[in-house]
Amino acid sequence: MKEFLKRKNIIFSMKRYGVDCLGAMAQGLFCSLLIGTIIKTLGQQIGMEYLVTIGTYATNMAGPAMAISIGFALQAPPLVLFSLAAVGGAANELGGAGGPLAVLIIAILAAECGKLVSKETKVDILVTPFVTIYVGVAFSTLLAPGIGTVASSLGRLIMWATDLQPFLMGIIVSVVVGIALTLPISSAAICAALSLTGLAGGAAVAGCCANMVGFAVMSFKENKWSGLVSQGLGTSMLQMGNIIKNPRIWIPPIIASAATGPLATCIFKLQMNGTPVASGMGTCGLVGQIGVYTGWLNDMALGNKISITAMDWISLIMISFILPALISLFVGNFLRKIGWIKENDLKLEN
Q1: Where are the alpha helices (H) located in the chain, listed in sequence order?
Q2: φ/ψ (deg, to 5) at 165
Q3: How far apart are CA 293 and CA 41, in angstroms?
Q4: CB contact set of 97 (below 8 Å; sequence gap of 6+)
Q5: Would you state the pLDDT for residue 159?
Q6: 322 near 250, Cβ under 8 Å?
Q7: Domain chopping of the chain, boundaries
Q8: I need a surface site. Which of 67, 195, 226, 348 has the fewest CB within 10 A?
């Protein structure tokens, strides 16, 4: 059996499944959902319907893109790799708020099963795609809804937090949504499902920004400008592989989330009254900031706000960019000095 698995390039290891696959999946998510959201938001803001259409096509391919990227990390044969498109689509759709996590688990199972039968028969062109897709869709039906339920439980925690005092609510919502943004689950889907707006939406924006901007700034030494842009305007999920190897690198962004959340709710009174999905997007394509801005316009149209003040802009900039960068950089440098974060712990794969 060991020789057979070795010949099939099936290696049961935390590095392959927890680091390589997670890192590849984050890139697949970036090249579909996240870049699509950026293009779509840009089109909506400048009034170019064609860009909105392009962005919609890209976001709709998130499941297949993630699954194929996972298959690539597993060095799957071509027929297995191409068949994972259907598997990713099924897992992402049935997984709901936990779509990305469902894709990760199910794509690994389907890819490894496909590799087991690959080139073992004379009708490989039929057997390999059939096994890969059948196993993937079967597991999607069995597992994905449950994974989505678990992810949605984070949403219930957030709703409970919104009933607390603004200080505690700000900390809990900011930290939980920020963690969800970096994990392979959809913070945007959770916020959309809960219609998370108002002060809670502002705290969610703060938490997402703390993770994205925090990782982007504190890893600038390793990743330079490309890392700053891909994490700061893309996704902090790119760091999941590194988090698995050294969870301590997550401490600075989490501390930044815990700090900026209550500042957003208690001091700056930052509210996100745009579309709820923007609460879970952070600085991804500046969707979170655009959501706050459109919320201001909505409030003005309803007579709940007289005008957009300089303090509004200062609050948004401080919570979204300046404070997360400063806090994460300060804490990150301290952890480097005491040896908790070492050289290249935050290095992203090219």
Answers
A1: 2-7, 14, 21-29, 35-46, 49-60, 62-73, 78-95, 99-117, 124-162, 166-182, 187-194, 198-218, 220-232, 240-245, 251-262, 287-301, 310-317, 323-337
A2: -65, 150
A3: 13
A4: 148, 151, 152, 154, 155, 185, 186, 189, 190, 193
A5: 67
A6: no
A7: 2-150, 164-337
A8: 226
Count of CB atoms situated within 10 Å of the CB of 305: 17
Q: CA 33, 37, 43: angle at the middle one, nearest 5?
A: 145
DSSP letter assigned to residue 219:
T
pLDDT of residue 115: 94
Q: Pick left, alpha or beta for residue 4 (phi over 0 → left; psi -120 to 50 → alpha; otherwise beta).
A: alpha
256-267 pLDDT, tens digit per residue, is 999 999 999 999
CA distances from 159 to 54, 169, 177, 246 (A): 34, 9, 11, 31
Point out which residues pair with 272 in neighbouring strands.
Answer: 198
Residue of 93, 81, 69 lying closest to 144 (CA atoms) = 93
Whose tokens are 């969800």? That residue is 180
CA distances from 158 to 177, 196, 255, 270 (A): 8, 9, 18, 17
Residue 272 three-state SS: strand
CB 144 within 8 A of CB 94: yes
Backbone angles phi, psi at 272, to 5 degrees: -115, 95
Give me the residue label for tokens 């062109």: 125
Give the closest residue to 172 by CA, choosing from 206, 124, 223.
Answer: 206
Cα separation, 40 vs 34, whole angstroms: 10
Q: Which residues of the chain fall below pLDDT 50?
A: none
Q: Is this structure's pTM higher than 0.85?
A: no
